[in-house]
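Example pasted here:
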Amino acid sequence: MTQPDPEGPDVQGPDEPAQSGESPAAAAAAAPAWPVMQVQTRWVTIAGLLLVLALGFGAWGLWRVLAPAPGDPQALLDESRRTTRGQQTQIDQLQQRVSTLTRSDQISREANRDLQSTLAERDEEVAALRADVAFYERLVGSTAQRRGLAVHALRLQPQNDTAWHFTTTLTQNLNRGAVSTGELSITIEGTRAGKLQKLAWGELRQQPGATGVPYSFKYFQQVEGDVFLPADFTPVRVSVRLVPRSGAPIEQSFTWADAIRDVAPATAEG
């Protein structure tokens, strides 16, 4: 008598084909669906990557078309023009500034020259006023020395080759309030053709018998006139002669060199 197998009948595994006589189509329909889903996911991923690559490649191509190449001559020319315009603007601004500063410096220099000239003129005026004040103090001041009629100064200025204009300053403070009147004449000593010669008033005035220049003052007066020298005459000394209406004539001499300076002081009294 046959003994039964203690392990029992064999159990069929899940992966083994059915031994009971099922058909292949039924077995395939009964198989799981996850391998198909895995394949579909893989294809979707690949398609997405291809789409991204296509879009990137298209964007790159569009950029290459629209953006200028690094060595594009037109781009370099445009950039050079922009740089040139910017530099020209800076140059124009600097030139304008230089022009403004130059004009300002020129104005400052001219103003400084004018100021220096004005100051020099004022200094001369102040010096002249001080000299006048000193002159008036010596003439009419309380401590002024009393002097009679005198020639305080003589100045000669050339008018042309032979004509000279003279200006004499006459003073007196001995008789305060009294009026001094009279006539003034000039004689000039010098050389002519190697010989000493003295030109009288009539010869100097080119009027034989000419009368002197009249004067009339209390304290001082400037008496002016013109004299004429021969072309070949070399003057050396000038004498001024005063003939008052009352009193003795007075004569004072000046060297020619002193007379043609701004102010010629008297060197002798006659």
Summary: Strands lie at 150-158, 163-171, 180-192, 195-199, 213-217, 220-228, 233-244, 250-255, 264-265, 268-269. Residues 83 and 177 are 91 Å apart (CA to CA). The radius of gyration is 64 Å. Residues 150-269 form a domain with the Immunoglobulin-like fold (CATH 2.60.40).
